[in-house]
Amino acid sequence: MRHWSEEDPWVDGDPDRIVRPYTVTGGRTRSDHADVELIALITTVRPPTRAQRLQPVQHALLGLCRRPMALVEVAARLDLPVAVIRVLLGDLLDNELISVSSPSAAGAPDARFLQAVIDGIRRL
Fold first, then answer.
1. Phi, psi (deg, nearest 5) at residue 49
2. CA distances (Å), origin 94, targets 34, 80, 88, 122
3. pLDDT tens per residue, the chain (124 residues)?
4. Alpha carbon 66 to chain centroid, angstroms
5. What does each C-alpha distance from 95 to 3, 106, 123 come to in angstroms?
6. Which residues of 59-84 are buried (b: 16+ CB within 10 A; e: fewer)?
7. Which helix (H) or strand (E) covers residue 89, if one does?
């Protein structure tokens, strides 16, 4: 069981009242960019302007992605469901604040390479 502290960003004053993920997305559950793969690399392109009002979690996301980071790792570090991160990423993509690099764009690994990895794991 997880114990919440006062410093936890998802606690809203009363430790028994936790901010729900749908609150972070404004009730939205889908994004126009829902096709972003779990292992896609997210990279911050530029900081937001003053006119672009972002939520604290979006600022945290931009900070995490100063170096390329996989979508699934961003979700884990922010302790939010992947679906929530996808909605927030969609907003950041629409504002051209991040870029997404699909690992499948680089091409599939060589079958010999994959076999060598499997053999190495079996030797462990």
1. -85, 170
2. 13, 21, 10, 44
3. 444 455 555 555 555 445 566 666 666 666 676 677 888 889 999 988 888 888 888 899 999 999 999 899 999 998 888 888 888 888 899 889 999 987 765 566 677 877 888 888 888 7
4. 12
5. 36, 25, 48
6. ebbbeebeeebbbebbbeebebeebb
7. helix 82-94
